[in-house]
């Protein structure tokens, strides 16, 4: 079951137009180790030394290059035919993700710049185009091993180490363009209000100042092909909002179609912009009626407590690293998690492809969206992190599957947060900035330990056995949250100066069990047999479930990743055990 506007491989499935062009494929490519490209005007004519298959980075085999050593500057170029019939429209060039600083030229003219490896960006390239001819798009990507830029699990040394892997440089998600009118819908922020059976649409419209007539915007809401409501508004301002009551006499059984893992109901919505009754823009989207709240130490979904069984997923593939090899590969990972009895995923240290979030929306997999960390606390890191995080929250806001924001993990980038008030205030500021955009989802300020202000207290502990877990946690809630004892072997649940205020408590990293091998590592002693693994796995799951104040968990992890061999699947997505055995333990 897909949404009404779904197009396979469409890179932005929550805001769909039918007229678009995928620019993935072969591009000319060149390294610029001496930083001479701009001086020598490569943006006017790039002489490529390689061919690269976009959107795979040069470090991957899928790119056709497969060189893992770091290069700070790389260039891309390709010719794009722009049809004569498109004259009079605006042509928007979209990059879903470029790591880290992107500068874009069209026919030798600078069209724009963007900083940030994980947020999408768009450029109106109309002024630089020749319609009815081939046009040259050139991009320079600048990366670094600087730990003040959000980098997540990308290494900043020559070789992989610990849990850090080969870096990703340049274009790593889809490049595409679309043709739109001068007057068009720019964005819609969709906010469900489950308790009142209403949904709010916050619109941004472009081109009002040049409209030769009156503009009207229509929103048509349907559910499973049943018409629910149509609203029509005069579009006389660049920003305006409407609240739509989803209940009326014709609704019948559709009144309470909530979104949840058990029933991931999605409302389709079609936005149509008219200029004097002529359709000039049509966008397909969707939303889910769901509510996330916290009461009495529990996380509630749609006003009912939910026990979260999450899987930690880093989203790496052996041939393509951070870039999913296909949309089908994303779907397969989601299906594996659901088949093994997990109802959610903590997407770790990565902002995932929007198509992944789409399929989580469709299939009903809860998502914790987690920012890629910096690894140094500095004014530059504060600025880099804040700018990109706010872009990401805005871009991902409409996905009903996302139920938690996780800006920080394990004190990465804030190493002295236990005592350092500057680092503590930084996390507080990100918490409040996130809440200013989205007050409806929980925010976890430092997943794992040393929380400041946080809506959920999340703890990481790789204790090996269920018995060891119970010895540390059973009956010890007060001692842990008051910092009488650490939450694992060496870290405290809260930073200095912060008190427990009754938040839900979850174990959001544990397990990481690996089979005996000299090719990589897992957490604790490696096991030799399936029976040894399953006994240890089951012991940990049962122990966590038996502690009454713990309301969910996140197991490490879905797949092996390079030198880390503690996945339930191999890197190639081959299950190490029958899925039904894992599912049986999780759901027991």
Automatic annotation (TrEMBL):
<dbReference type="InterPro" id="IPR006102">
    <property type="entry name" value="Ig-like_GH2"/>
</dbReference>
<dbReference type="GO" id="GO:0005975">
    <property type="term" value="P:carbohydrate metabolic process"/>
</dbReference>
<dbReference type="InterPro" id="IPR008979">
    <property type="entry name" value="Galactose-bd-like_sf"/>
</dbReference>
<feature type="domain" description="Glycosyl hydrolases family 2 sugar binding">
    <location>
        <begin position="22"/>
        <end position="137"/>
    </location>
</feature>
<dbReference type="Pfam" id="PF02836">
    <property type="entry name" value="Glyco_hydro_2_C"/>
</dbReference>
<comment type="similarity">
    <text>Belongs to the glycosyl hydrolase 2 family.</text>
</comment>
<dbReference type="InterPro" id="IPR036156">
    <property type="entry name" value="Beta-gal/glucu_dom_sf"/>
</dbReference>
<protein>
    <submittedName>
        <fullName>Glycoside hydrolase family 2</fullName>
    </submittedName>
</protein>
<dbReference type="GO" id="GO:0004553">
    <property type="term" value="F:hydrolase activity, hydrolyzing O-glycosyl compounds"/>
</dbReference>
<feature type="domain" description="Glycoside hydrolase family 2 catalytic">
    <location>
        <begin position="323"/>
        <end position="527"/>
    </location>
</feature>
<keyword id="KW-0326">Glycosidase</keyword>
<dbReference type="InterPro" id="IPR017853">
    <property type="entry name" value="GH"/>
</dbReference>
<dbReference type="InterPro" id="IPR013783">
    <property type="entry name" value="Ig-like_fold"/>
</dbReference>
<dbReference type="InterPro" id="IPR006104">
    <property type="entry name" value="Glyco_hydro_2_N"/>
</dbReference>
<dbReference type="Pfam" id="PF02837">
    <property type="entry name" value="Glyco_hydro_2_N"/>
</dbReference>
<dbReference type="InterPro" id="IPR006103">
    <property type="entry name" value="Glyco_hydro_2_cat"/>
</dbReference>
<feature type="domain" description="Glycoside hydrolase family 2 immunoglobulin-like beta-sandwich">
    <location>
        <begin position="184"/>
        <end position="290"/>
    </location>
</feature>
<dbReference type="Pfam" id="PF00703">
    <property type="entry name" value="Glyco_hydro_2"/>
</dbReference>
<keyword id="KW-0378">Hydrolase</keyword>
<dbReference type="InterPro" id="IPR051913">
    <property type="entry name" value="GH2_Domain-Containing"/>
</dbReference>
């Amino acid at each position: 079951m897909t949404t009404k506007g779904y197009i396979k491989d469409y890179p932005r499935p929550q805001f769909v137009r039918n007229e678009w062009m995928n620019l993935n494929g072969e591009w000319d490519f060149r390294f610029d180790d001496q930083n001479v490209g701009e001086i020598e005007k490569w943006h006017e004519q790039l002489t490529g030394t390689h061919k690269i298959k976009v959107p795979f980075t040069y470090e991957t085999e899928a790119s056709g290059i497969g060189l893992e050593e770091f290069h700070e500057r790389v260039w891309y170029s390709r010719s794009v035919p722009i049809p004569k019939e498109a004259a009079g429209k605006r042509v928007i060039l979209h990059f879903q993700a470029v790591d880290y600083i992107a500068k874009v030229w069209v026919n030798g003219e600078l069209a724009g710049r963007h900083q940030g490896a994980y947020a999408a960006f768009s450029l109106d390239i109309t002024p630089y185009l020749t319609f009815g001819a081939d046009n040259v798009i050139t991009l320079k990507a600048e990366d670094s091993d600087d730990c003040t830029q959000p980098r997540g699990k990308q290494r900043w040394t020559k070789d992989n180490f610990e849990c850090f892997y080969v870096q990703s440089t340049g274009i790593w998600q889809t490049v595409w363009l679309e043709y739109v009118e001068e007057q068009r819908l720019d964005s819609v922020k969709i906010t469900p209000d489950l308790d009142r059976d209403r949904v709010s649409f916050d619109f941004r419209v472009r081109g009002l100042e040049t409209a030769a007539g009156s503009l009207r915007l229509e929103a048509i809401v349907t559910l499973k092909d049943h018409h629910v409501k149509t609203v029509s508004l005069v579009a006389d301002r660049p920003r305006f909002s409407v609240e739509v009551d989803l209940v009326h006499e014709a609704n019948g059984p559709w009144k309470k179609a909530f979104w949840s893992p058990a029933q991931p109901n999605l409302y389709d919505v079609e936005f149509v912009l008219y200029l004097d009754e002529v359709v000039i823009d049509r966008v397909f989207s969707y939303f889910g009626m769901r509510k996330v709240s916290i009461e009495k130490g529990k996380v509630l979904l749609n006003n009912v407590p939910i026990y979260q069984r999450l899987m930690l997923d880093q989203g790496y593939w052996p041939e393509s690293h951070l870039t999913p090899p296909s949309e089908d590969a994303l779907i397969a990972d989601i299906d594996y998690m659901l088949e093994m009895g997990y109802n959610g995923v903590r997407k770790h240290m990565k902002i995932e492809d929007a198509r992944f979030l789409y399929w989580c929306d469709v299939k009903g997999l809860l998502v914790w969206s987690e920012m890629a960390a910096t690894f140094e606390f500095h004014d530059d890191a504060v600025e880099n992190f804040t700018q990109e995080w706010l872009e990401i929250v805005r871009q991902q806001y409409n996905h009903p599957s996302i139920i938690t924001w996780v800006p920080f993990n394990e004190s990465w980038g804030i190493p002295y947060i236990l005592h350092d008030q500057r680092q503590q205030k930084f996390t507080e500021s990100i918490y409040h900035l996130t809440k200013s955009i989205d007050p409806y989802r929980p925010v976890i300020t430092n997943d794992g330990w040393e929380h400041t202000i946080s809506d959920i207290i999340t703890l990481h502990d790789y204790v090996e056995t269920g018995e060891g877990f119970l010895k540390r946690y059973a009956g010890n809630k007060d001692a842990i949250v008051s910092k009488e004892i650490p939450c694992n072997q060496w870290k405290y649940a809260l930073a200095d100066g912060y008190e427990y205020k009754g938040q839900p408590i979850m174990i959001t990293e544990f397990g990481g069990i690996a089979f005996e091998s000299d090719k990589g590592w897992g957490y604790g002693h490696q096991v030799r047999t399936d029976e040894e693994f399953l006994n240890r796995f089951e012991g940990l799951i049962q122990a966590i479930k038996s502690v009454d104040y713990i309301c969910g968990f996140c197991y490490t992890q879905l797949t092996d990743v390079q030198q880390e061999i503690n996945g339930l699947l191999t890197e190639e997505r081959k299950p190490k055990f029958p899925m039904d055995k894992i599912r049986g333990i999780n759901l027991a």
